[in-house]
Amino acid sequence: MSAEESQLPGSAAERREALKEVFEQAQACVRCSELAATRKTVVFGAGNADADLMFVGEAPGASEDEQGLPFVGAAGKLLEKLLGEIGMARAEVFIANVLKCRPPGNRDPQPAEIENCREYLYRQVELIQPRVICTLGNFSTKLLREDPTGITRLHGQPEVLAVGRRAVRLYPIFHPAAALYTPRMLEVLAADFQRLPALLAREAAPVVAPPPLRPLPPPAAEAAVQLGLF
Fold first, then answer.
1. What per-residue confidence (pLDDT) applies to 35?
2. Nearest residue to 8 (alpha-carbon basis) of 222, 229, 211, 218
3. CA nearest 138: which of 70, 56, 64?
4. Measured between alpha carbons, how far is 54 from 144 in angstroms, rounded to an integer?
């Protein structure tokens, strides 16, 4: 085992405690000054901290910003319904987003914001250790694949790759919000969901040599003072 590998928490309890530390760091993050100034809560993610299946969406919306939980609106209810159709419950999975803060007016995440938040997501993947990650829509798919190919071409096609310091099976699918009012899209999404049990039954993805840890973004002192964090 390398020195870097030995730094990773080993037991489930240790990983859970490390995840709590990342959560606390995210709660105080003000690196994206606009998002820090306009958010009500930091939506870190929620679910089973030892989940085999993880979903990664785009960014919190208004309901998520109010409640501090991901996917609590109509898209979240559809996600739960689709999980139920394959014999799974929301409590069995972990759900997160590319951004932990709501963009004003639900605008698209900006490249600098995605980069600022990237390490939080990578740490979540490292500590939860999912076997399969479902990327929901374009933003999470492009980020975790580090490739601009869109979800329309990639949906339903699993691949093994490294996400931060973790090898996973990445499984791109359409965002549930895109299927809420489009019957044809809902059929495609449901069909992609039906392949999940078989993916989860496969052997774990091979271990990859971990790159050096990058530090999580430090708070910006000026913005922190403005927000009363000191």
1. 97
2. 211
3. 56
4. 13
